[in-house]
Model the fold of this input.
Amino acid sequence: MLFCLGVFTGSMAQTKQESIRELFHLMRDDSTSLKIMNSMVPMLTQKTSQDMDSTARTKSQESMKSIMAAVTMIIAKVKDDRLKLYDRYFTQDEINEMIVFYKSPAGRKYVSVKPEITKEIVMKVFKEYLPEMEKEKKAKPVDQENKD
Done:
């Protein structure tokens, strides 16, 4: 009886993990992250290389490629960790409900516009918020910084 229970439990875990993999596929999280990073590379490269000579600009672009390769590798490594975390935090029924959502028109639209929304937010941070923070930091008196 214990053997049958073990086999049954093992097959349920496999089913749940397969459901989680289907959910990840529907969410397109891995490809979304890469799309966002790839769309940001030109902006980041341009921003950091405005005051550089051609040699420094080339090195900066090579560094960006290296960073992108590292991000791609990290995304691949994190995939198994994410699977385990989803398995721990969500029930089979919750995973099934999410699958239904991501298969729905609203879910498919969410997946299709999520990279653009994220890109716009990140670009706003780089173009508006970070420069504002830099201005505030430069405008702050030195004595004020030492008191904080």
In short: The mean pLDDT is 79. The chain has six helices and no strands.
